[in-house]
Amino acid sequence: MLGKNPEKKPELFRPMLVDFIDHEHELVLLSEKIDWNYFEKEFSSLYSKVGNPSHPIRFMVGC
Fold first, then answer.
1. Spans in the chain with pLDDT lower than 50
2. Distance of CA 16 to the CA centre of its chain
3. Which residues form the Transposase InsH N-terminal domain (predicted)?
4. How many CB atoms lie within 10 A of CB 54?
5. Angle at 25 between CA 24 and CA 30, to 5 degrees
């Protein structure tokens, strides 16, 4: 079953990963240029409609 993208909500005593990432790193810059909706649309038909939710498709294709 295709999982939903997790909501990004801050927690009081838990720092967000985005606070530690170098936003000038080449992989971060590349990930901003990728059309993630395209991958969602292309791969979503391959997922079951029942069962446990999957990890987001973005994790599978590399980011």
1. none
2. 15
3. 17-61
4. 15
5. 100
At 35 the pLDDT is 92
For residue 8, is it within any domain? no
In a domain, 7, yes or no: no
Q: How many domains does the chain have?
A: 1
Whole-model pTM: value is 0.58
Range of the structural domain that residue 50 is part of = 20-61
What are the phi and psi torsion angles at 21 (to 5°)?
-85, 140
Q: Is residue 47 part of a domain?
A: yes
Paired with 50 in beta bridges are: none
Whether residue 5 lies inside any domain: the answer is no
What is the predicted pLDDT for the residue at 29?
Answer: 93
Q: Which residue has the tokens 């985005």?
A: 18
Question: For residue 23, what pLDDT is reported?
Answer: 92
**pLDDT of the residue at 16:** 79
